[in-house]
Design a protein that fits this description.
88 residues; mainly alpha
C-alpha cells in the first residue's frame, strides 16, 4: 500500500514537473520571438537612421562651404555680392 501511494506521488510530481517545464518553455519561446521581432525592427530603424545620417553629413558639408556662405549672406543679411574689387 505504501508503494502504491509513493508510486502515485512519483507520477503526480513527474507530471507536474513536466507541465511546469513545458509552461516555462512556452514562455521563453514567446519572449524569444518578441525579442527577435524587436531586434528586427531596431535593425531596420538603424539602417534608416544611418542612411539619413549620411545625407545629413553631405548637407552639412555643403552648408559649411564658402560658396554657400556668400549665398546665405546675400539672402538673409542684405549683403551684395561684389563683381569688381578695387584695391588701393
Amino acid at each position: 500500500m505504501t508503494k502504491t501511494i509513493a508510486f502515485k506521488n512519483f507520477w503526480i510530481l513527474s507530471i507536474a514537473l513536466i507541465l511546469s517545464l513545458l509552461v516555462i518553455y512556452i514562455i521563453q519561446v514567446g519572449g524569444l520571438a518578441r525579442d527577435k521581432y524587436l531586434l528586427r525592427a531596431y535593425e531596420k530603424e538603424l539602417v534608416f537612421l544611418s542612411k539619413n545620417n549620411k545625407f545629413l553629413d553631405i548637407d552639412f558639408s555643403k552648408m559649411n562651404s564658402l560658396s554657400h556662405i556668400d549665398q546665405v549672406l546675400a539672402k538673409n543679411s542684405g549683403f551684395v555680392k561684389t563683381n569688381n574689387v578695387k584695391y588701393i
